[in-house]
Known about the structure:
- The protein is α+β, with helices and mostly antiparallel strands.
- The protein has helices at about 5-20, 55-75, 85-115; strands at about 25-30, 35-40, 40-45, 50-55.
- It has one domain (about 5-115).
- It has a four-stranded antiparallel beta sheet with strand order 1-2-3-4, with no helix packed on it.
- The protein is elongated, with a radius of gyration of 17 Å.
Amino acid sequence: MIQRIQTVYLLIAGLVIFGLFLFPYVNYSDLVGLGKNVKVTGVYSVAAGQPVHEGGFGYILQTVATVLLGGLPLFTIFKFKQRKVQLLLIWVEVVAIILFAVWLYSSASTHLATVNQFLGAG
């Protein structure tokens, strides 16, 4: 199982996807100057020294999708005896991650548009 390099790559892919629970994919300051973080589990800010969580149904779906996308590479590692199935699962994961990235971008731009901010580089 560990003899092939794709095992290491799949393990790294799973860990990076699960890293979305720890690290925000968008940081911004609202109009009042309050810093906010957008994670797959919701929008977080700090008010009066206490963390505030603003969730929603869309973030529940993102959380479930992140768990599934993070678990698929780990599941794929154990398909090492079925190389064709493993290759198919890897391609499914690649396509799913691309679609998930588009979803995160769309979600972030929609959320930022509600506070009159827009995504941009820099």
